[in-house]
Amino acid sequence: MSEPDDSERLRQLEARIAKLRDSKAKRPHQEEHYSQAQHAWRMVIELVAGLLIGFGMGYGLDSLFGTMPVFLVVFTLLGLAAGIKTMMRSAADLAKDMNAPGRGGDEGTKDGD
């Protein structure tokens, strides 16, 4: 008489597994694509903003002191460096978020799936 108990337990287990799989269903690929595009645009804007701020500061100082190309070149390069540093920080934050438990990554491969 233990067989009916086993089949009932098996049925309950299958129902629980199905419920968990439904709750962990992936988002549509389209939403993830737009999310990645937003992060990419954010990084591009950070880079360009650093360049433009450096260019503006250099041009302003050159106009103020009358030394046209010196500060323009120096501050444009500093703006580029600042933009790249900010962009790399954003990329590191994004990578940290993607590798966080329960978000992205390769969780499915741990169980042999």
UniProtKB/TrEMBL annotation:
Keywords: Hydrogen ion transport, Ion transport, Membrane, Transmembrane, Transmembrane helix, Transport. InterPro entries: Atp1_alphaprobac, ATPase_put. It comes from the Bacteria. Pfam families: ATPase_gene1. The chain crosses the membrane at residues 40-59, 65-84. The keyword rRNA-binding does not apply. Belongs to the bacterial AtpI family. A possible function for this protein is to guide the assembly of the membrane sector of the ATPase enzyme complex. This is ATP synthase protein I. It comes from Roseovarius ramblicola.
